[in-house]
Write the structure tokens for this entry.
Amino acid sequence: MSGLRLDRREDALKGGYSGAVLVPGDAEASRLLDRVRSDKDGFRMPPVGARLTTAQTDAIAEWIAAGAVWPDRQQSSAANTRSTDHWSFQPIAKAAPPSVKQQAWVRNPVDRFVLAKLEAEGVTPAAEADRRTLVRRAAFDLTGLPLTPEQIAEFINDKSPDAYERLVDRLMSSRHYGERQAIPWLDAARYADSDGYERDPLRPHAWRWRDWVINALNDDKPFDRFTIEQLAGDLLPNPTLEQKVATGFLRNGIKNREAGTQNDEKRFEETIDRASTVGTVWLGLTVGCAQCHDHKYDPISQKEFYEFFANFNNAVETDINAPLPIQADSFAEAYPVYRQRRAAIWQRYGTGQLFDEWRAMILKTMDEPGINTDWDEELTEWRAANDRADWLMLSAESALTDIDIDRRADWFLRAIGPIFKKDEPTAALLKKVQEELAALQADVLAERTMAYTIEEQPEAKPTFIALRGDWKAPGVEVQPGTPAVLNPLEAQAKPARLALAEWIVDPKNPLTARVAVNRVWQELFGRGLVGTANDFGTQGKEPSHPELLDWLAATFVEDGWSQKKLLRRIVTSATYRQSSEARPELEERDPGNAWLARQNRLRLPAELVRDNALAVSGLLFGRIGGPSIHPPQPEGVGDLSYSRKDWPEDKGPERYRRGLYIFFRRTSPYPMLVNFDAPDTLTTNVQRERTDTPLQALNLLNDPVFIEAAQALALRACQDSADTDERVGKMFELTLGRLPTATESERVSRFQAAERSRLAEAAEAAAKTAPFVPPGMTRADLAAWTSVARGMLNLDEFVTRE
Amino acid sequence: MNFTDIMRRSPQANRREFLRTAANGVGAWALSDLLTSDGFAAGGQVLAPHFAPTAKNVIYLFMEGGPSQYELFDPKPALQKYDGMSLPPEMTRDMKLAFIKPSAKVMASQFKFSPQGQSGMELSELAPYLGEVADDICLIRSMQTDAFNHHPGQLLLFTGSIVPGRPTMGSWALYGLGSESENLPGFVVLTSGKGTSGGTSNFSSGFMPSLYQGTPFRSKGDPILYLTNPDGIDRAAQRQTIDFVGAMNRLHEEQVGDSEIDSRIAAYELAFRMQMEAPDLMDFSDESPETLEMYGIESENEHRRQYATNCLLARRMVQRGVRFVLMMDASWDDHTYLNDRLPKRMEETDQPTAALLKDLKRLGLLDETLVVWGGEFGRTPMVEIRKPEEAANAGRDHHPSAFSMWMAGGGVKGGYVHGETDELCLTVAKDPVHVHDLQATMLHCLGFDHERLTYPFMGRNFRLTDVHGKVVRDLLS
């Protein structure tokens, strides 16, 4: 009986989410009485404690029969007053940056907030990181790629006072910026290249949305537009192709295609996932906790959850042709040809008539299942694999898009049904049609790019509260809405999803800007100003610097939601530029470095560990965007999953592209990414873990990808000089962006010498370690440098942003 | 002292933060290393479960797909009576079916049951070896689950929720108890047969840090990914490299003062020991011929060889302190050819399974090892026919509302049958055990109150049993 209040007559008569429970004057028609009288555990009320005696339930029955009169004085109650005065629900207040004593340290207003706190604690900030550390840090944080020794030297030699700021601008204008910034957004969006669940079908066009993200970030698309287009791009007036592509955000969730899964249930779960994801990503609220009951801690009732859910309940999935701008002309030319020739093939073999026969049987089976198990099976498979399967099968061609018509036809050609399966000439004919269509596609539309998008159903679908979170137990009907504790949703003549998106980025929304700013801070310091990026509710952590958070959030909005300006403001602050060296004197007082009396050392995200190795060894192929890649992975990785799909390993330079492009198959992800804490993409993730395990060590030590990088790195470090010290220096500059200390140099030389003597005695080992030896070098020497390079790629410092 | 207390006393007061950081990442691998290296719990008992555990380790034999209870564990003579008939609609009204219709006809079992052991437990003729150890097993005939499809069913079984993304049983065991192995991961996954529907989500750590996730031991290539040194690097050379890396890391640590670097150094040492230990683990030359024969490892049949090898490996792992071994065998999803495939699969697995119990018992390990055998659901009394023209094609569909599983060892009764189903095993008639109850009972054996073993995430304290589950005391010895 959730949603029910019995302490006020008005609420009690209204009933709970499952409807009315009290009929004044008619005790036996009152469901309340059934519940208190029941023998059934779990149904009986109250749920815990001693059950009511017969005398007590009789008293209740009498009272209802007498009209269920409430005493006047009991009309109001303090019950159910969950906190609405929690800090994050209050409007964003932009306070003036505080005044501080050490003016000289301050580079921009961010620093005043941080310094004020430090001064209050009697702590001085850390010294600025040395320039090499700083440039490496900024590069990893902004583009995710290390700079070359030449680029570093250029910065070091630039003595102008704004050298660092100009470096930041250069990094932010690199197209690699969008790749780096996309990583946390892809996590939040639970991006993957397959559906998940048992069969884990692939999503060969999912990357089209990823490209949209990279481009949007590179173009500094304001965060409000960035939001609206992803949540409701299809509902904008005359939406562009790119705006439709943006809605792919809502298509990234997992999808169950096991046979027998009910489409209503699937849709319900997907909509829950969309609502929960949006709640976490934009509002920092665990709205999903109110799926089964009122939120235990935050002022979000179950009813409000389903009102929020209702905003997404009218969305349907649609796949569209989405040629990249560069493909647009050739696609416009090729597509009509393709359609024409496709129709001709279809017609030539009389396929239409066969299809109609098949479809008639499917439709018949939909009406009357259980007559023929083969047709039942045929229908079950169709339903499992296709969204809106019944609608798609029932619709006349005139009501369908080209893509939907083809989907139905292509399915038919593969499935062909129990009758044609046994009819060899027809089966052969259909196979021929299938082959010709495939050949046609390869011939005319080989590079066809599509996108997975969302659109609105023409007729609104009513939404009901799902009692106990069970889709099969609908309660009262609800309208699209937003949690009452936040800024009001103005009534508008707009589709609900668009109104919701606009409400999210309404400057009056107290959460959106704070949550977005916090996530950026978290990327740049390893920890957000609010330590729980996924929970700004009452169970989350309080902000360490509330005024700073609000100042940044307010400024972000004033700046037109420019993410680049926000990032630039933070990375050019003195706070960001501090050294990350430990401060033992503060460990007791500020163990998590919440005061920001230094920067933090952060292990690189999974993708960047790989990118870094490829970059320093010169192997990296820096092409931006496009379909996902399949770099080599050990044999048998896919065997753990049911689908066991092939891994079509890239043979060309594609295999050396950045980690964010690696094809992410949900049931058997690329092992290196898993080892280094890339999220599983099953749900949204706005805060990656950072662990340190032996599997990471084995990965860096023994994975052929890193061995190949070590071989290339050794050649690179040795090519310009035969001098040991110079080679050591080059190795350091390439991998760590700095020069070695004398002790380090000595230790490396010693290791190189030991390896050289080992390998001089072991010709075979040397040949394996250094398969290619350039003129002028001995194999043992190069192999020993390869060992050094392998060691360097395994250093803590190599995988750490200092 | 309680684990949580230790965490609270740590210099980094917040447990979540604590686990997030690298310094502590190694914890689940070798808790003793971690705690001593951090200096706040040097030596001694570091964990106190909520009460005395009856099991230290778990070997979970997961029979993916849902083995048929009718042919193995739950004799139903009434099937004969209804054979070839459709059941009245009121009997099938509440059934959730994946492929067949409620009107599908009942199929009798072709296999005989007979009493086994002192206890007289009725088991099928397909499980003769299991019959020999009937007095050691605790058979539950009244299992229930909520999901009727594989992946959701597996998620519910292993994570307590059909919503993906939560930690699995093995992760909870590791989170609660840590690892006792210095040289091996604390949660290991072994596979035989095909891949499973759940894939990696059956051993994922979900929202817990990845160090709690299961490490698959592979049957092809390296047993652990990237375990083998690259060509040209022998063990001595690998040692040299790790020493070099360690020395360089220490130099850097002196400069930046970050104690987390210690943890990376420790991780490399563990990795090196794993490189030694894992091949040693796989090398059965120290096992007697009798033992190898008991498991029936030598076999022409690849599935048999794989499965038997995994059984012996599981025992060797438990001996080496691995906390949780998940063995996944796929697939028992007999929609078709049930009467051919199931006997064949039992022939391949029955002997090694029983050998594992005998062997553990012989070594005195069964008392401290909880062995669990079962699938994510059972199968329907009604037949599924995909090729009507072929009689042997008959199989059974998914059936979540009544099925069988068994447990043995570490704190559960032997020679005991729990629960009853109705005459057709459509529903549970007596003493239902939901998969949440199974989870609660397993955690109980490991010394934890399932309601108090929680992990905070997104503003909520999550449990393996979600918001359900009760310990089934009748199962406990």
